[in-house]
Write a structure and sequence with these properties.
Largest sheet: 5 strands, antiparallel
Shape: globular
Strand order of the largest sheet: 7-6-5-8-9
Strand content: 25-35%
Radius of gyration: 17 Å
Number of helices: 5
Helix content: 25-40%
Distance between the termini: 32 Å
């Protein structure tokens, strides 16, 4: 959630996002992300796509969150608007020191991650297919600005491109990105 706020502060495009910590927060959170279902829910900490799920109705959201809070009352959930896409981009960005002038950031690798059949997620670790991709300058700039905004020295920036209007959104800046998929895809 802090990452999303930093990105928003730096005018980097992100999906509309809200935090839910209790049942009374649900309706306002859904309204904050656009007021329609499906919505994407994320645990504040997760890995390899685990802890990310989609909910298609208010009754499903309420019952799912009630179950989560029953098991772990302190759980907070990030709610995001769903961006319709067939793929996302995983972009590895590193910072290099250039002495007196601080850090210079550059993209060292990028891959397209295709949506898993029967799922909305794209994670390589969950069986998603990947392919090499040449990044448009606009996407490369967004990835670098995302790394700068979060202060990461090496990160995986996940960007989704909306199927409707081709607008890019940063889904995540992962400070501990896996390398197996991107190494296999890009050599």
């Amino acid at each position: 959630m802090q990452t999303t706020r930093k990105l928003q502060y730096n005018k980097i495009p992100v999906p509309r996002t809200s935090l839910i910590s209790s049942e009374p927060d649900i309706d306002k959170a859904v309204e904050d992300v656009g007021g329609k279902y499906p919505v994407v829910c994320k645990f504040l900490s997760g890995t390899k796509g685990i802890g990310v799920f989609m909910i298609d109705s208010r009754p499903s959201l309420v019952s799912t969150l009630q179950a989560l809070w029953y098991l772990s009352p302190e759980t907070e959930i990030v709610l995001q608007e769903r961006i319709e896409a067939e793929y996302d981009l995983r972009i590895h960005v590193i910072a290099e020191s250039d002495g007196m002038y601080g850090r210079e950031y550059k993209v060292i690798a990028a891959m397209k991650r295709m949506k898993i059949k029967g799922d909305f997620r794209t994670n390589f670790s969950l069986g998603g297919d990947t392919e090499t991709v040449e990044l448009p300058k606009e996407i490369e700039k967004i990835a670098i600005e995302s790394a700068k905004a979060t202060g990461c020295l090496w990160c995986g920036v996940d960007i989704i491109v909306d199927k409707k209007d081709s607008k890019p959104y940063v889904l995540e800046v992962n400070a501990s990105p896996g390398t197996t998929g991107i190494e296999k895809t890009t050599d």
